[in-house]
Amino acid sequence: MLKCALIVSLAGAASVFANPAAEIAKKAFASTVLVVIEDAHGQPVLLGSGFVLREHAIVTNMHVVEGASQGYAKRIDEETKHQIEGILQADNGHDLAVLAVPSLFAPALPIGDSTKLAVGDTVYAVGNPRGLEGTFSAGIVSSIRTIDSQKILQITAPISPGSSGGAVLNERGEVVGVAVATLQDGQNLNFAIPASYLSTMKLAAKPVPFASASKKPGAVPRLAPAKSPSDFVDQFVADLATNNVDTQLRYYAERTNYYEFGPVNKTAISRDLRSDIKTWPNRSYSIRGTPTITLANNGFTAQFPMAYRLAGTKGVSSGLLEMTLEAEFDQHSPQITQIQKKVISARRAR
Q: Does residue 294 surpass a pLDDT of 90?
């Protein structure tokens, strides 16, 4: 009889503590948001993560919103876009920002005591790596480092671009860190800002609009400036007219699906560019209309009509092309991984 009762008791305990991580994930997802930053034209620039700190306020990294014109937050698995009104407080030194989102109603995540963390403690990272909403991963604290007198958490819970600003939780589901970076060439070298720095941030009564915040004196430069897709396309088309091969090559990834040549490296692209410059030393290009830009994971696709006029040893050639390019974000600027063209009209004269 005692043995039977013990089995029942253990079974009951197992059902209560069957999967605490699943419960933590469920509660965290309700307070996690996808942060989408846009340029002045409403085109998406960057994807990030964030979490609810209090009513109508979310936390993310400052580098996610630095230089932004506008943006919105979206809860996981919901379509409603909640416009970000501005910045309630920014801590450039610790790469933290608290944003005002008046229309967002969601439960706040509890803030834990990150000073009590120890190497080996279990942690969970919650966010939207590469735009994949609602990603939950487990790991441990692998080190607590001091860099320039500032503490930073080194964790094994995987994070990727798009995870920036996401919550790092302890086994009680409390926020003990904010995901900030990963070393792409390393194995599980991921970093988070300790949550203790959040407690020192005093929130303003009214948010500072993005445009004003970007001009705020004392703001640190962005560690990884990235052009918006629309700005990138405009500059790429403008630089097509230059006769400097290096200037044009900087737009391409190390390997690109390049027109009819297929996948090639920069050496092959350089040969093609030099040939064009030799044949058509005088070139002009212009975008007709507004490029259609679609954000996809860690990059974007751009489609746009482009007029051209070429003059050189073969006479004059002009026409209209339908351009399609795919690019991925890296640390400094997008890089073209595929580019194709379709001839809409063409005219040639000697």
A: no
User: Per CATH, which fold does 229-349 belong to?
Assistant: Nuclear Transport Factor 2; Chain: A, (3.10.450)
Q: Is the pTM of this model over 0.70?
A: no
Distances (CA, A) of 184 to 137, 193, 231: 17, 18, 26
Q: Who contacts 269 (Cβ-Cβ below 8 Å, separation ≥6)?
A: 249, 252, 256, 258
Strand-pairing partners, residue 336, are 252, 327
Other CB atoms within a 10 A radius of the CB of residue 330 amount to: 15
**Per-residue confidence band for 297, with pLDDT thresholds at 50, 70 and 90:** low
Q: Do the domains 114-195 and 229-349 sit in the same CATH topology, yes or no?
A: no
Confidence grade of residue 133 (pLDDT, cut at 50, 70, 90): confident
CA distance 263 to 283: 25
- Superfamily covering domain 114-195: Trypsin-like serine proteases (2.40.10.10)
Rounded CA separation 39/255 (Å): 28
Tokens standing for 246? Answer: 């290096």
Q: What percent of the chain has pLDDT over 90?
A: 46
Contact (CB, 8 A) for 265 and 253: no
Please say if the pLDDT value at position 304 is more than 60: yes
Contact partners, residue 62, CB within 8 Å, separation at least 6: 90, 91, 92, 95, 96, 97
The upper half-sphere exposure of residue 137, i.e. CA atoms within 13 Å in the direction of its Cβ, equals: 21
**Mean pLDDT, the chain, as a whole number?**
84
CA torsion sign for 243, 244, 250, 255 is positive
Q: Which two tokens stand for residue 161?
A: 């671009």
**Mean pLDDT within 167-183:** 90
Give the max Cα distance, the chain: 103
Amino acid making up residue 248: Q
Helix (H) or strand (E) holding 89, with range, is: strand 86-91
Q: Hey, where are the domains in the chain?
A: 114-195, 229-349
3-class SS shares of the chain: helix, strand, coil, % to 5 = 25, 45, 35
Q: Name the more confident of 194 and 45.
A: 194
